[in-house]
Amino acid sequence: MKQLGSNISSRLAAGFLTIALAFAAAPFAHGADLTASGTVYADINKNGARDDGEPGLPNIRVSNQEEIVFTDEAGRWELPASDDTIFFVIKPSGWTSPLNENKLPQFFYIHKPAGSPKSKYPGVKPTGPLPESINFPLQRQREPDKFQAIFFGDPQPTSQKQIDYIAHDVVEELIGSNAKFGVTLGDIMFDNLSLFESYNRTVALVGVPWFGVVGNHDINTDAPTDELSDETFESHYGPAYYSFDYGQVHFITLDNVEWLGAKPAGKGTYRGGLGPKQIAFVKNDLKLVPEEKLVVLMMHIPLDGVVDRGELFRLIEKRPYTLSISGHTHTQEHRFLGKENGWRGDSPHHHIVNVTVSGTWWKGELDERGIPHATMRDGAPNGHSIITFDGKRTMFDFKAAGRPADYQMNVFAPEVVAVADSGKTDVYVNVFAGSERSVVELRIGWDGEWKQIKQVHEKDPYYAAVREREMARKPAPPALNAPINSSHLWKGKLPAGLTAGTHTIFVRTRDMNGRYFHARRVIRVK
User: Fold this and answer.
1) Strand partners, 452
2) Reported pTM
3) DSSP labels for 346-368?
4) Looking at 112-213, which runs of residues are DSSP E strands?
5) Of residues 401, 483, 410, the one with CA closest to residue 155
6) Separation between Cα atoms, residue 102 and residue 125, nearest integer Å
7) What is the mean pLDDT of the chain?
8) Using 50, 70 and 90 to split pLDDT, how confident is the model at 298?
9) Whole-angstrom Cα distance, residue 136 to residue 40?
10) Which domains, from first to last, does the chain contain?
């Protein structure tokens, strides 16, 4: 998303204007005692400008990143402003904001009269005086109660070459998707913020609206404060936190990367945090969301790593339907947060740590396409997820990059087993989207008896073997990161008394939604 400024007429002609601005003789002012106002209107002809006959829309929420107001009967709104404020409309169900050429929703107006401070990567250009009227167009669209959304964790390219990996490994198979929108859950970049535009053009080919979440590698690391760390991100995506409705679901995007400031040597640190202003926005937002509606929180750092998560928990833990999703760890996990995490709700809160597009940071042997296999440290392949929303219910689907949709697990056992060792030999099953609520069973042959095996928290031996094999090659590819304990690994024994010959290990798993997935592995016994 690009800031509106002197090129307003050309953007109107192009049809990608976020907000039709009526510039009048508004005086240039500084400080927090300004008042912004405008109109939310029905953009009937979808040209991004308010034309005759296009009515204002009542009861639409508008925010200044903290306070939220409803439009009046004529679609008018009014909010306090400062010289660093982003105003945005909270998209209601059945409506959409215009999209720019990169399929990024244009639902905001940035007010920074002097622009962003100078930094390595440019931020927002000077916007000039506060407009007399900030007008938000909304366009009618059909939104079913049951729909799908795509979630990317950490694409994290360091170069155009790695953006090309994203294009071939993930984007190509998603082009023409039936999903209603997509979300990148932070670490869109790997510190090189000049690549935002190229990445956005690539992901736009999927063909659906796309939302961005700020990650710790998407910030201006030369910024002295957290408040100034999102300037380049804002110039492309708008506010770092906001909300919108789609169908029967309320989505809240959070900025939970708290930048602790650049150091004299040019380096700084961050932590998981939200801050009082953002908490105030969420509090004000949720006051206007019915209790029976599903609320989905989208962020970069997992919730249990956020220092002020307790304040957020107090706002959602009494709600019957909540879900949250993040990236950051380069693993795939279903975490069920309870009292040990500071959650006081009647039942644990379901938090998804989403599979990453870059896997283990684009490392590992190249495949036949010249793309690193990038298997993640917990043994799951790189890829993306698709969540199906159906009213208050959700269903999570893991999709491995470049693999069939039914590739949901990997079975690891020795190639050859001695007859005498069959009852002592371990079989490991890595169920990529598995959780403590999954059931995993195995049997030998078509006539074998299904036996449940136990979930373990160990390093995936298959991933470890792949890493060791690749590191032994000369020259070795970029080494995979050391394995970590997997949250979705199961272990069982082969049955004793297997006869010499070739046998098939059949595995099946039942997920938390009651669906079954299957896999097989052939071994030799001698």
Assistant:
1) 441
2) 0.93
3) SSPEEEEEPPBSSTTTT-S-B-T
4) 133-140, 146-152, 181-184, 210-212
5) 401
6) 19
7) 93
8) very high
9) 5
10) 8-82+96-140 (no CATH), 148-400 (3.60.21.10), 409-525 (2.60.40.10)
